[in-house]
């Protein structure tokens, strides 16, 4: 919640809105660009699990190669979904554009971002991801 509020204050400063006005904040959405920047900041400060940061490259010969994804790529994968055997569906209604608080929480908890290990839940003594 604090991260989302910080992005709201940042965007409301640009719009010259009062960040303490609950009525304005209730319907306020955070721009998608700021969400990408926040995910990148979490990644830069090592607050994302390593598994979620791995993205495939176009190089498949002689074997599939991988690299560390950017904040924008991780956000896009969380919002739109990604393919593959262990792929996931998108967690937001729209693949682009502004994000609500609930959608921001869904992005952070998705397997594509998995901030602070939030995508892992304990099920019957084993670890599994929450969006499977």
Q: In one word, what is the shape?
A: globular
The residue ranges in which pLDDT falls below 50 over 5 or more consecutive positions are none
Distance from N terminus to C terminus (CA atoms, Å) equals 24 Å
Strand content: 5-15%
Number of strands: 6
- Give the overall average pLDDT: 78
Classification by helices and strands: alpha+beta
Sequence of strands across the biggest β-sheet: 1-2
How large is the radius of gyration?
Answer: 16 Å
Give the SSE order as H and E letters.
HHHEEHEEHEE
Written description of the protein model:
There is one protein chain. The chain has 132 residues and is of the alpha+beta class. 39% of the residues lie in helices and 14% in strands. The protein is built from five helices and six strands. The protein has helices at residues 2-15, 22-26, 32-44, 71-80, 101-109, and strands at 54-56, 66-68, 81-82, 88-89, 120-123, 126-129. It has a two-stranded antiparallel sheet. A hairpin with a 5-residue loop joins strand 3 and strand 4. Helix 3 (32-44) crosses helix 4 (71-80).
């Amino acid at each position: 919640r604090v991260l989302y509020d910080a992005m709201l204050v940042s965007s409301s400063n640009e719009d010259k809105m009062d960040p303490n006005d609950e009525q304005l904040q209730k319907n306020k959405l955070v721009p998608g660009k700021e969400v990408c920047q926040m995910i990148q900041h979490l990644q830069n400060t090592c607050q994302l699990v390593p598994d979620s940061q791995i993205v495939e490259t176009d190089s498949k010969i002689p074997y599939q190669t991988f690299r560390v994804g950017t904040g924008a790529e991780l956000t896009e994968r969380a919002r739109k979904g990604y393919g593959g055997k262990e792929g996931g569906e998108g967690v937001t209604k729209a693949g682009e554009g502004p994000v609500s608080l609930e959608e921001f929480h869904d992005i952070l908890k998705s397997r594509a971002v998995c901030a602070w290990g939030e995508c892992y839940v304990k099920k019957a003594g084993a670890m599994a991801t929450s969006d499977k």
